[in-house]
Amino acid sequence: MDSEISYGDFFRQAPAxxxxxxxITGVVxxxxxxxxxxSLMRDIRYLDKLVDELARGRAMEKxxxx
Length: 66
Fold this sequence. Notes:
two-stranded antiparallel ribbon; 3 helices; mainly alpha; about 5% strand
């Protein structure tokens, strides 16, 4: 919250996204994450979906479908 960095800069400066992120599917805020065309918004929604699923107690292996 106290950081000057924006969400966009956070994702652009990330060293690497998980290669399995595209396996995350479902709805966040009424939008299917796999249908989002804007890559930055899709990455943000992947993170939202991941946090939501972890908060519900799902295992990371099930979320990423390992």
